[in-house]
């Protein structure tokens, strides 16, 4: 083994960045370019490292080929001599180090050129020290004097671990964002090294994310699930949830991984990255964001089975998602399961329960839960009260809504007061039942208690006045909101245009639309549908066609909603050629017709007795993987009956009955068809059958 003084001297050289000693043999000399290190070159330490690694590989190859056999033999034969020489070398090194110290004191000026270079090298040596120590120790174990005064050849050579070398080199350069150097390491970059680098930068999440994205941009390198999960753990630990959710979403939507596959990978890297349970909550949220309802539930259940449960926040997120997708029945199943697992509900859980009950129009049950919240010692927040108020308003129970608002401060022990959301719900409720005067009083009350009406407040009031036929008052409110510095949005403009068209004021509606365009307020699908219906209702079919053509050319909408309105008017005016032409233009511009589009065309042709064309459209619809609904089947049954094909219609009804796709209209249409054909006995028989089936 190396003597302590020898090791100490090497350690001092490396730790003080004085590699000039190793190259020039004396610290007072300038760095000689021909020796391998150049003054001012910040990459010089890496030149030395590469040389050391290369020398190690050369020795390894020489040993494998037997080229060092003589040296090894000499070392074995002269073991005792080596021990003596070790002590001699240590004494020589000690003497040289003392000489260096003396010369340093006597010729301090000789250090100045080297010191300048060394200062430049110090920054990049922090991460390199341990690497050089490893390399030098590998070369100096059990040595014989070799290559002059620095390196000794040992009878056994410890090869540096190449993965560690690449790993440390990447970390050092990543800290300083030296992307050009990192580029050169791409051929040696493996997924295992990438994962290690990402975990290494736990406390620098931005740098970890930059490295992850940089690697992802290189076509020659593909991220593994392991490296992706490593950066997700880093991001979650640093509370950068949006970035983590985005990555998880991409793994499932772009890479095609299932939520359970992502969960397994996160579990595998959980301990290595020193993660937290929040990463599993984040996975549930990522699933709900991309609409993977089943996947989110599977993740929760899998973790529950494995004893690594998600928190109440993940359950709340999933319950909220079920309400948004209107799966209220499933909401209650999941809620009961959550309670059975012993989770303690918080105020957000109770808010979701109240919201679900209000959506189910179960106001009394919602009030019971509300009082249970108060009794349980969990103080309701503003969201709780606003949900209750909004639920009461949507049910038309304005007395209950007002009572809740008036007693809000008392019921919350003075901690909660009505806000703009509360008043907007009340104003909307009173406007919908036609009590516009009460709504105006509430708006004035808002301003008295320093709650400024917002755009939604004005939009609700404008819709209320317009619905009541007071368009002048609605326009006055538009001017008032502009004076208050509030810019009307598309909801406000849509409301004004809708009621102007309904009153037949096409010119007035056109002026409002022009003003909307001048203020660069983007159109939405409701704007397009209001304009299309307004033109058609007032007999301006050509204008409607021109408007929709412009909409298609500029890609302003992405669904068939507005086109369905125009196709409906064209079919009602027996202009089927124009309807088919519009349908073709939709295909050309990448706008996919929906069930309403096909249903409108089928119904129009059936009513005109064109049952063959209607069936052709039906077949085209099925080939396009669009599922027909009961309305479409009823239209076809009506067309068959009008064409005298009542028995064919009856066969279709039998098939639909087995599928559970019949209603009163289906039977009434068929009965009417029997009567028109004079088949009264079959009509009465079908009527009896309806009664037995409780239709």
TrEMBL record:
Q: Which SUPFAM superfamilies match?
A: HCP-like
PPR repeat ranges, renumbered to this chain: 346-380, 381-415, 419-453, 454-488, 489-523, 524-558, 559-593, 594-628, 629-659, 663-695
Keyword Cytoplasm in record: no
Q: Which Pfam families match?
A: PPR, PPR_1, PPR_2
Annotated coiled-coil positions are none
Gene3D superfamilies registered for this protein in UniProt? Tetratricopeptide repeat domain (1.25.40.10)
Q: Which UniProt keywords apply?
A: Repeat
Report the NCBIfam families cross-referenced here. Answer: PPR
Say which family it is in.
Belongs to the PPR family. P subfamily.
Q: What is this protein called?
A: Uncharacterized protein
Q: Look up and give the organism this protein is from.
A: Salix brachista
């Amino acid at each position: 083994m190396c003597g302590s003084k020898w090791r100490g001297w090497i350690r001092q050289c490396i730790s003080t960045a004085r590699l000039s000693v190793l190259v020039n043999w004396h610290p007072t000399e300038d760095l000689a370019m021909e020796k391998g290190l150049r003054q001012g070159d910040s990459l010089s330490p890496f030149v030395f490292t590469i040389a050391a690694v290369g020398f190690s590989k050369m020795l390894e190859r020489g040993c494998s080929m037997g080229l060092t056999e003589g040296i090894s033999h000499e070392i074995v034969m002269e073991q005792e001599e080596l021990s003596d020489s070790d002590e001699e070398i240590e004494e020589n090194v000690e003497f040289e180090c003392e000489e260096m110290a003396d010369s340093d004191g006597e010729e301090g000026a000789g250090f100045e050129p080297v010191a300048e270079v060394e200062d430049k090298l110090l920054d990049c040596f922090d991460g390199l020290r341990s690497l050089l120590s490893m390399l030098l120790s590998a070369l100096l174990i059990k040595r014989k004097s070799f290559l002059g005064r620095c390196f000794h050849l040992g009878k056994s050579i410890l090869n540096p671990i190449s993965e560690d070398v690449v790993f440390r080199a990447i970390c050092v350069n990543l800290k300083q964002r030296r992307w050009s150097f990192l580029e050169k390491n791409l051929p040696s970059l493996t997924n295992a090294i990438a994962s290690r680098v990402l975990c290494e930068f736990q406390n620098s999440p931005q740098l970890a994310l930059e490295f992850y994205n940089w690697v992802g941009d290189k076509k020659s390198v593909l991220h593994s699930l392991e490296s992706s999960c490593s950066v997700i753990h880093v991001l979650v630990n640093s509370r950068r949830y949006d970035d983590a959710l985005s990555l998880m979403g991409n793994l499932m939507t772009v890479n095609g991984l299932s939520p359970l596959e992502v969960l397994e990978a996160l579990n595998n890297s959980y301990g290595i990255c020193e993660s937290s349970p929040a990463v599993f909550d984040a996975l549930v949220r990522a699933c709900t964001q991309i609409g993977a309802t089943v996947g989110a539930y599977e993740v929760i259940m899998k973790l529950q089975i494995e004893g690594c449960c998600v928190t109440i926040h993940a359950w709340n997120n999933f319950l909220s998602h079920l309400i948004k997708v209107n799966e209220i029945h499933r909401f209650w199943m999941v809620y009961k399961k959550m309670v059975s697992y012993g989770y303690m509900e918080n105020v957000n859980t109770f808010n979701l329960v109240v919201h679900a009950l209000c959506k189910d129009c179960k106001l009394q049950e919602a009030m019971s839960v509300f009082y249970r919240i108060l009794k349980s010692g969990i103080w309701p927040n503003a969201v709780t009260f606003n949900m209750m108020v909004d639920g009461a308003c949507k049910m038309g129970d304005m007395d209950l809504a007002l009572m809740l608002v008036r007693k809000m401060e008392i019921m919350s022990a003075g901690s909660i007061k009505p806000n703009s959301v509360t008043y907007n719900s009340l104003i909307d409720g009173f406007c919908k039942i036609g009590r516009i005067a009460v709504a105006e009083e509430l708006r004035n009350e808002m301003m008295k208690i320093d709650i400024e009406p917002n755009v939604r407040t004005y939009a609700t009031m404008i819709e209320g006045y317009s619905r009541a036929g007071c368009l002048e008052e609605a326009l006055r409110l538009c001017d008032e909101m502009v004076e208050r510095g509030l810019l009307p949005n598309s909801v406000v403009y849509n409301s004004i245009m809708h009621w102007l068209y309904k009153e037949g004021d096409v010119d007035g509606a056109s002026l409002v639309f022009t003003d909307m365009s001048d203020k660069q307020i983007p159109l939405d699908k409701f704007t397009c549908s209001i304009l299309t219906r307004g033109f058609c209702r007032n007999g301006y079919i050509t204008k409607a066609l021109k408007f929709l053509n412009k909409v298609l050319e500029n890609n302003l909408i992405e669904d068939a909603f507005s086109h369905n309105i125009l196709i409906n008017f064209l079919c009602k005016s027996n202009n089927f050629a124009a309807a088919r032409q519009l349908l073709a233009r939709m295909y050309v511009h990448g706008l996919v017709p929906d069930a309403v589009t096909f249903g409108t065309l089928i119904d129009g042709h059936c009513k005109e007795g064109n049952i063959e064309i209607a069936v052709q459209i039906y077949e085209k619809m099925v080939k396009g993987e669009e599922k027909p609904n009961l309305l479409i089947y009823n239209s076809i049954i009506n067309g068959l009956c009008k064409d005298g094909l009542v028995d064919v219609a009856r066969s279709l009804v039998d098939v639909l009955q087995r599928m559970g796709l019949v209603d009163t209209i289906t039977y009434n249409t068929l009965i009417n068809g029997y009567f028109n054909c004079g088949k009264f006995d079959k009509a009465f028989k079908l009527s009896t059958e309806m009664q037995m089936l409780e239709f």
